[in-house]
Amino acid sequence: MGWITKQNILIVGLGLMGGGYARGLKRIGYHIMAIDTNAESIRYALENEIIDEGSAETNPQLIRKADVVVFAVYPHLIKPWIEQNQQYFKYGIRITDVTGVKSCIVYDVQSILREDVEFIAAHPMAGREVYGVQNSDDGIFHNANYIVTPTEKNTENAIQWCKDLGRLLGFRRVSVLTPEEHDDMIGFVSQLTHVIAVALMDCSDNTHLVDYTGDSFRDLTRIANINEKMWSELFLMNKQPLLEQMDNFINEMNTLKEMLEKDDKQGLCEKMILSTKRRALFNKK
Predict the structure, then answer these.
(1) Residue 46: pLDDT above 90?
(2) Do 193 and 222 touch, CB atoms closer than 8 A?
(3) Which of 141, 145, 194, 283 has the fewest CB atoms within 10 Å, measured from its CB?
């Protein structure tokens, strides 16, 4: 099943990411359906033509119509939703997701799926510091990274299908990692950065800082405006990789602290030169 024919796509969870997928895929001609427990989100999406059909309840009729299902809900909700509703899936459909953790999700989901249904996981590396379908915008995908995380149970056709989905949505780079490689990487580039931003905001209760701060502080703490329910779940579901990355960061902080205590200007300069060199790789061209 490729992306040439115009299919019925069901999005389960119509928040920021689900809304972004809906907008992007509807714009290029797909029939978009959505299920979300928030009736206001469904109403808004219908009124603003983000989706074609929607329901605030699990709707077997919509599920039966779907050629593709995209899960954009909290990670712990995916497996029970599938267990309760996969009897309504069309024969041979493919499902994917947008979740930020993989090892603790992918294998469990694949283990309970019908043999004719294939789950190929993916992670769109994009987001905003706001929530809900009302703030969704598929433009956040453009020039962003998209990661496909197959296992041995996935077919080459499904892996290519999922990669093609990323390209359809406008992602700049599409990569493939194992679930374990993904979780190690995400523990560093995403979860650790959120830990640092939260710790930085929480270590001072000076409410007047906003009167004095500059752009560097605002840039560094931008992601401290955080969805606490989602991110605490992501942290705990990727606990071990994140703890390892936190230990590495604490060790680096201790090294810098020791250099400062010893007035080691040369050591500090070398650290800064290294960070500048590594940061240059991330500059967008």
Answers:
(1) yes
(2) no
(3) 283
